[in-house]
Amino acid sequence: MRFKTIEDMNHYEILNIRTSASQQEIEEAYSVAKNAFIQGSLAHYGLVEGNQRRKILAKVEEAYRVLSRPRRRKKYDVKTLGLKSEAYENAYFRNSMERILIEEAESKPSLWERIRRFFRKP
Amino acid sequence: MIPEESSPILGSHPQSDRTIWAVGGGKGGTGKSFFSANLAIHLSQTGEEVILIDADLGGPNLHTFLGMKDSDADLGHFFTNRVSDLREVAVRTAFEGLTLIKGTENVLFTANLNYFKKLKLIRHIKAFEVKRTVIDIGTGSAYNCIDFFLLSNPGILVINPEPTSIENAYYFLKSCIIRLLKMHINHYRLQDLMKKVAEQIQDTTKSIYSFLSEIISQDRHHADLLYRALKRFRPCLVINKAREDKDALLGQSMVNVVQKYLVIDLNFLGTIPLDESVHISLKGMTPYIQQYPHSRVSNAIRAIADKLIKAGATAA
Fold first, then answer.
1. Cβ–Cβ < 8 Å for B21, B133
2. Which residues pair with B92 in a beta bridge?
3. Which of 15-44 (A) contact B at CB < 8 A?
């Protein structure tokens, strides 16, 4: 058990949930965490200063932004946390990993989506 | 961690099914005595043997909540050595299985209890062979209150959903944490860290989180040691006089804040609603849970008691 600074905490730790949390648990945890650090909340009264509060709230929003979308969450779990996906866990019976890589690869944006992104203002 | 025999204060029991619950919170008037009395009554009604101790040395009231104005023996007899054993001042109540150790109204200035008398009291409390001990530690963050709170497994904070109460509760928790850190630093002879703790005490704007972050940069091993000590301190939280549903959300949010900035795990047990019937039963000096057994307040106290018992069973 090691102490982690808030900067080192992953999104699950920021929202105080397990990595196996369901979508509903993520929604509830986000509601609790946002209520904890939003301006004027009693929950942090007398304990957290303005700058610290804004920083942690930004981290809460970022954690929710990633974990609330299943694809982003899956990518985060695999790339950042090194968690193996379910398909990989069950891959022992497969002859090759190629099909898994194809299944798990992010789909390329369509031509229309690429055009829209090109003309979207930065 | 500090072994049992090295700390006269920290809560530790040879049998895992015995619990000591100390009820505190810093601010006065939040309902600590009310909660302590009715929690003890409920536990006795479930068939358990309970000792209820009024350690609010500056203003004992538990006898009033139990409707027991006149009783001879109290803590004053113990502190003035008129009795040698704390059990000699335990008084049977009208509830089978529930015994009360009344706070003293006759011996003045017991709130300024000296260190040796406090240790004597703690030693006797630890020696009780009773399944449940409930201690009302009263108001404030003096050393006596903090040490009674640290004695328990776990301690229970009773607060109201108001900024003054929350602020005082955080102050109380910070005081407990600093006390705990000092005990561990003394035990492991980390004198170079003692200076940092002294600075922390003087500069209360610093959070426990920033204190540990500073230590990490210099000494990772000791920072982790202190972190593990803090993780064993797991107080519980009850929000009394709750007026709306979002007071429950407040409790859960406080858990999140405390986990990050005080680096401890707070266990939110639930809310007790504000109800005029509490005031009526107090004026009539009758035990609330007996007079209004099916009210929302009584149901809330029972639900909190169930969670406490389950939390203890899980920890064991």
1. yes
2. B99
3. 16, 31-33, 35-37, 41-44
Looking at chain B, which residue has its C-alpha nearest residue A5? B213
**Residue A1 within a domain:** no
Note the ipTM here: 0.80
Please answer whether residues A9 and A58 qualify as being in contact, where contact means their C-beta atoms are separated by less than 8 angstroms: no
Q: Residue B169: closest CA among chain A residues belongs to which residue?
A: A46
Contact B89, B74 (CB under 8 A): yes
Q: Structure tokens of B23?
A: 């009820």
SS3 B21: strand
The residue extents of the domains of chain B are 13-163+234-257+265-315
For domain B13-163+234-257+265-315, give its CATH number from 2.60.40.60, 3.40.50.300, 3.90.480.20, 3.30.300.130: 3.40.50.300
| Global confidence as pTM | 0.84
| B253 with A43: Cβ contact below 8 A | yes
Long-range contacts of A62-70 (CB under 8 A, 24+ apart): A62/A11, A63/A11, A63/A12, A63/A14, A63/A15, A63/A30, A63/A33, A64/A15, A64/A26, A64/A30, A64/A34, A66/A11, A67/A11, A67/A12, A67/A15, A67/A21, A67/A26, A68/A23, A68/A26, A68/A27, A68/A30, A70/A23
pLDDT confidence of B34, banded at 50, 70, 90? very high
Instruction: Check if the beta carbon of residue B20 is closer than 8 Å to that of residue B153.
Output: yes
Q: A5–B249: do the CB atoms touch at under 8 Å?
A: no
The distance of B225 to chain A (nearest Cα, Å) reads 8
Q: B228: which chain A residues are within 8 Å (Cβ-Cβ)?
A: 1
**Residue A38: closest C-alpha in chain B:** B253
On chain B, the residues whose CB falls within 8 A of the CB of A3 are 212, 216, 223-224, 226-227, 263
The whole-number pLDDT of residue B15 equals 46
Reported as type and span, the H/E element at residue B136 is strand B132-136
Contact assignment for A36 to B227 by CB distance below 8 Å: no
- Best residue of B253, B261, B268 to probe chain A, by most A CBs closer than 10 Å: B253
CA B191, CA B173: separation in Å to the nearest integer?
23
B227–A2 C-beta distance less than 8 A = yes
Could you read off the pLDDT of A99-119 as tens digits, one per residue?
555 555 556 778 888 888 888
Residue A108: inside a domain, yes or no? yes
Q: Which of B167, B213, B252 is closest, CB to CB, to A46? A: B167
